[in-house]
Amino acid sequence: MGKFITLAIALAFFAAADQASGAPMPVKPVIAGDESLVVRVQEFQIQLGLSDGLIFSALSRRGYSDIRITKRKLTKARAEACRNGKKYKIQIGFDGGIRKVVEIGSCRPAINAETARRILRQKGFRKIQLGPDGAGFIAAACRNNRRFRVSLDQFGDIRGEKLLGRCGNILTKYDVAALLRAQGYSRVRAERGRRGRFSVQACRRDEAVVLEVGNDGAILGERRVGRCDPPIHPATIPALLARYGFTRIEIIDRRLPRYIAQACRDTQRLEISMNRFGEIVGERSIGRCEPPLSAAGLKVILRDAGYDGVRIIKDRPGGFTAEVCEEGARFRLELTRYGETLSEQRLGDCPSRRVRKILKQFERQGVTGATMYVEGCRKKKRVRIELDQHGTPVRRNVIGRCR
């Protein structure tokens, strides 16, 4: 057929009689924008390919923050994240390895404690007691003779103010705990005692102490009573959460002041914040936990996600081995029961279907008289070549000029 500059393969349907029959043609589901392999099965949402936990963990342990997943495939994903004030576009492999990093802009730098104090002073606060809170800070401070609890994010923006009372007035036990945490105490348990004073048990570094606190928040006495358990290692987080009844646990952020994990409890997916001592300090619902997949369910989901030539090779209690075609390449994948990719192996190119099989498929869908043809440019002329069911050229027509 000669050398073609451009090549287009199309189907020409000559089926006027069949159009009158109104026979519907099956429509393959399309994922909007093909940005993420998300497929809904009944009321559950199945997330194929790399899990959020793997992506967040892989990037956060390399010092990235403000992570946003922009695209996900079975064996790779793309994300945008910040590090050292710069913003990057990052490609992540199925094993969490970084394949490519491109700088695309700048990020706002995170503030330190001294900057947080300066911001609060500029806002009119005085008598500032400051401590870490997640990625930001929490402070107890006075302004216009009133005491506030103030929350700042990592960029120095004030996210919340709560009036605690007048500076010097009586506080609640929750206010006392906030004041002590701002001074560096942890695991604070305060109870009101005699004469309006508070008896407080807390840890300061690795020391267990008992404090007497006045009704104005001032520490009147401190006594050491033992040692506090040491901080946990992030590797122990899955075991700790499993004891609390969580399953499918993934560590998202291994950096202090707050460890972040994702896990399932019943059918709910939660983001869990833990302090350095392994205590849960926050939970946030982020979705539902899908049930394990069957081999038939995984096959349907992969096909609906746009993959061809799907074959389930092994169906084991721990997961699946599958073969799929993606962008003309054939892969063997090891997948969990929830569709998460554990490993990949490229097997070569995917075989193309014969013309006869393609035409037969459309005949089964009610389309008759279908013809396969090739369009392309040759010697500045646009040529259409009709093929028979064996792929042999049977007719050639010049249909115009090429630009």
Describe this structure in words.
With 403 residues, the chain is an alpha+beta fold. The chain folds into five domains: 57 residues, no CATH class; 133 residues, no CATH class; 60 residues, Nuclear Transport Factor 2, Chain: A, CATH 3.10.450; 56 residues; 55 residues. It has a four-stranded antiparallel β-sheet, with helices on one face. It has a four-stranded antiparallel β-sheet with strand order 4-5-6-7, covered by helices on one side. The chain starts with 6 loop residues before the first strand and ends with a strand.
Total count of strands: 26
Strand order of the largest sheet: 1-24-25-26
Helix content: 10-25%
Q: What can be said about the biggest beta sheet?
A: 4 strands, antiparallel
Mean pLDDT: 78
Helical segment count:
7
**Amino-to-carboxy terminus distance:** 20 Å
The rounded Rg comes to: 31 Å
Structural class of the secondary structure composition? alpha+beta
The total tally of domains equals 5
Q: What general outline do the C-alpha atoms trace?
A: elongated
Q: Which spans have pLDDT < 50 for at least 5 consecutive residues?
A: 1-46
Oligomer: single chain
Strand content: over 45%
How would you sum up this structure in a few lines?
With 403 residues, this protein is α+β, with helices and mostly antiparallel strands. It has helices at 16-21, 52-60, 113-122, 173-182, 237-243, 295-304, 355-364, and strands at 7-13, 38-41, 44-47, 65-72, 76-83, 86-93, 98-106, 126-133, 136-143, 146-152, 158-166, 186-192, 198-204, 207-213, 219-227, 247-253, 259-265, 268-274, 280-288, 308-316, 319-326, 329-335, 341-349, 370-378, 381-387, 393-401.
